[in-house]
Amino acid sequence: MTEKTAITPSTHTAPPAKFSHGVRKGNILQVAGQVGFLPAAPGQAPTPAGPTLREQTLQTFANVEAILTEGGASWDDVMMIRVYLTDTGHFAEMNEIYNEYFEDLTVAPAARTTVYVGLPAGLLIEIDALAVLD
Predict the structure, then answer these.
(1) Is-contact 23 29, C-beta < 8 A?
(2) What long-range pairs does 104-111 form, CB within 8 A, spacing at least 24?
(3) Under a CB-based contact definition with an 8 Å cutoff, are residues 37 and 63 in contact?
């Protein structure tokens, strides 16, 4: 049986509870829900990339991508993306940012689910991803 490996890029601080930022087992890589925190030094409190949905979404994509890269994957390997928004009014803007970000994707886009949730104060978006590698 293939071992399960925790993935934590150098850009990420330790999770606040007992979970991994990403886990790879065989050719499957699951990226835990990421938010728009800027990279922080150990012991430093994480801070959001900014107050706007655009700033937080782009940083969230960067945080997901860092885990994908560390785990040997890329956006091309992603099969499923889940987006969690705190405000239903952000759906259209998030779609616009999402479409711009993935504009140059050369393979079929991932499946996606968007749901509305409560997140800690100041956070507007969370994204997780499931990648399957060749």
Answers:
(1) yes
(2) 105/75, 105/76, 106/76, 107/76, 110/75, 110/78, 110/79, 110/80, 110/81, 111/79, 111/80, 111/81
(3) yes
Q: What is the pTM of this model?
A: 0.94
115: tokens are 């749901």
Distance CA 30, CA 120 (A): 22
* Cα separation, 108 vs 110, whole angstroms: 7
Q: What is the 3-state secondary structure (H, E, C) of 11-54?
A: CCCCCCCCCCCEEEECCEEEEEEEECECCCCCCCCCCECCCCHH
**What is the spatial distance between Cα 3 and Cα 60, in angstroms, rounded to a whole number?**
28
Handedness of CA 133, 74, 5, 63 (dihedral sign): negative
> Taking 90 as the threshold, does the pLDDT of residue 17 lie above it?
no
pLDDT at 14: 81
> For the segment 94-124, what is each residue's pLDDT rounded down to a tens digit?
999 999 999 998 899 999 999 999 999 999 9
At residue 126, φ and ψ (nearest 5 deg) are -140, 145
